[in-house]
Amino acid sequence: MMKVRRYLRGSGRVLAFVFVASVIWLLFDMAALRLSMNDANSQLLKERVIREREMLKQQSRVTQLVNLGFKHPVQRVDLAATHAGGGALNPAGKLASVYRRGGRQRPPMLEDRKPQGNDILASDRFRSVASKHNDGGALHNSVTQKQGAPAHKKAVNLDLNIANGTQVPPSVQKIKPTHKIRADRARDSVGNEKVKDDLAKAGTKQAHLVKTTPRQPANKDVNRKEVKEEEKRVRTKDLDGGEETAKPAVRLQAGENSTALRKQSVHKVLSLDMTHSPRDVNALGQFGQAVIVNGDKDAEVRRRWNEGHFNVYLSDQIPVDRAIPDTRPDTCAQNLVHDNLPSTSVIFCFVDEVWSTLLRSVHSVLNRSPPHLLKEIILVDDFSTRDYLKGQLDEYMAQFPKVRIIRLKERQGLIRARLAGAAVAKGDVLTFLDSHIECNVGWLEPLLERVYLDRKKVPCPVIEVISDKDMSYMLVDNFQRGIFKWPLVFGWSAVPDEYIKKNNMTISDPIRCPVMAGGLFSIDKKYFFELGAYDPGLDVWGGENMEISFKIWMCGGEIEIIPCSRVGHIFRGQNPYKFPKDRQKTVERNLARVAEVWLDEYKDLFYGHGYLHLLDKKATDIGNLTEQIELRKKLKCKSFKWYLDNVYPDMKVSLVKAEGLVFNRGLRKCLALQKDSLSFETCDLSEQSQHFNFTWMKQIRQRDLCVAPQGKGSGFTLQLCDNTEPKLRWFYKSSSSALAEHFIADFASQHMCLEAERQSGSLRLNPCEPSNTFQKWQFTRYHA
Ligand code: UDP
Ligand code: MN
């Protein structure tokens, strides 16, 4: 102590004073520097803090609210509308949590059924998101979520095959607690703890917020300048931080098409989020929060529902540039991307889109895309009938020089509308989006980065869910990829765990995606046209996602889902627009075109899963396919078998339903084909003449010969197999049917079964008898 005092005497005291003063000065300096850095983003940060706090509050309440029983957002709630972003949640806020929770239930999936007459076919462009728990299981449709569906909404049934009677009732998804979803997000680390950590960090950030910079009123020039400034700041910051030599966080496994080696200068992903007016934290739906509409507005909500098949009444009251939660995995904001990414034209096609959702879609792109990368936004009006989409839209969009509107002179459908947009696009990359989406912060650069690394990569953002009922923005599970099930039904399934482990995948790594959902993706413009774009013979809606997916993979490209790029989409139970022709027939026809061009021998599986009627050329004209087939040859695309083996190996496919010996239980002998005639022999696996297939076309077949009945009571012939011939089809079930193991003639009006003659050892067609063992046939192996 004495020693210290001695040092503080005389000049020592002066020195000590100078030292302390400098430390204080340094501290002030650092604080000032920090402030100036924070200043630019202070508004954003503040909003983020409020938002995250709100989310935390909501989450902690959700669990208590599980049993409140308010399951029907439109019909049962009669409390005041929720204002998101406020302080403690009001009663309506609590209800909002319930909605949110409901909406966050395991996302909609497709039911594994086959199409039927009046069912609404939502097969291919079904774009909601599945839970990993459903991998390999039945797929379920979005509209099987009974909760919250308005009474007039028709349930969508898929894949109902009356013929083979295997229909499974649609299942209603179980509600998934919100906290679990949050935990899923942090699956690669420590679960909930990580989320708490994030929120704690957000709280600390707020401590630095001294001054906020309110956004200027709607003035695009000011905003553009601000964006430029912000970009500059971000770059400078990165350079100052000595990161200019750092490599992008993405793996630079650039293939032969890579341009990555040209230039390595990089910057941190720009997390831009502009607002055209000072952001109203109390606005409805702000920060993607759920909103409960007053019960007395039910009739209005229901009336307006039909305009878009979602809560149009509510959407119209939510700011067109609302903020939404930044749902990216944590590391995404730190990822580096190249400075010289290609520019993009964003193409929105729409037909009779709701005003507020169309505007929100456009604003989300304008506000959250780096301006130097956004070449233009092309709005393709697919011959909409609504007045506001004409002059009023022209006028509104005139304030944004980057927005161009193209109007088609007749209804072309989504596929040809996109082609029209692509034809005039000036950007290097085409980015297709649906017209009822909201792009999240930092959505664009990670997509363009992938195209930059390899022009044959086709990146898709993670599609998140904007609730059709309460307009909340909902998280989805990690590691989801698009797949298909027969008959070309799109669905989601989790990447298999072994694959994740083997490849050390984290939640932010690109995910190989066998089939894209279709609505949202970026593609190098030149590459898109090299691939022959979309088959222009596809009508209105449906099947185009299958077509482009098979084409990309089989002809040398790759489809990826990029977890650092996220876009919300309103999933609707029905298409809100009219189909010029019958909807079901339109989609089936599109799918048949895809099957004929791309599936090779596997097209039997497509037809065999409920679409055999499409083989009747008199009933269905799928149009001319010459150009498409030529294109496939010209591009030297690989086989569909290659695609299954290499891109979607977890899809187990067999080209036949059953095969091997065909054993008759009564006769205890096997069917044999000798010199063009059928007989019975002692079963012998080594005899090729005893080997038959039961095909997806329902044929009993050996090589190119099929078993054909000649008529009641008479014998049998062998005919050259012809997939279009219904008389060669047999209905056959190996179990769980009264007529299990019977071959029932498919074409006959009454049940007629294939029976072995006891004495003569020949075959004939007799009325079916469930217990008659001479009508029971067994194959050696079954695959379906
Ligand atoms: N669309 C179009 N013309 C059509 C059908 C659809 O321009 O004939 C647009 C539609 O407005 C939307 C996009 O194409 O922006 C995708 O359609 P939709 O959202 O109905 O498909 P989903 O998301 O239900 O698969
Ligand atoms: Mn859509």
| CATH topology (level 3) name of the largest domain | Spore Coat Polysaccharide Biosynthesis Protein SpsA, Chain A
- Compute the number of helices: 19
Radius of gyration: 31 Å
- β-sheet strand percentage: 15-25%
Q: Quick one: overall form?
A: elongated
What can you see in these coordinates?
- By secondary structure, the protein is of the alpha+beta class.
- It folds into three domains: 25-60; 72-166 and 168-210 and 224-233 and 263-570, Spore Coat Polysaccharide Biosynthesis Protein SpsA, Chain A; 656-782, Trefoil (Acidic Fibroblast Growth Factor, subunit A) (Trefoil), CATH 2.80.10.
- Helix content is 30%, strand content 17%.
- It has 19 helices and 26 strands.
- The strands form seven sheets. Strands 15, 16, 17, 18, 19, 20, 21 and 26 form an eight-stranded antiparallel β-sheet that branches. A five-stranded mixed β-sheet has the order 5-4-3-6-13, with helices on both faces. Strands 7, 8, 9, 12 and 14 form a five-stranded mixed β-sheet that branches.
- The longest helix has 55 residues, at 11-65.
- It is elongated and about 125 Å long.
- It starts with a helix and ends with a strand.
- Mean pLDDT is 76; it is low at 33-45, 55-227 and 230-256.
- The structure holds uridine-5'-diphosphate (UDP) and manganese (II) ion.
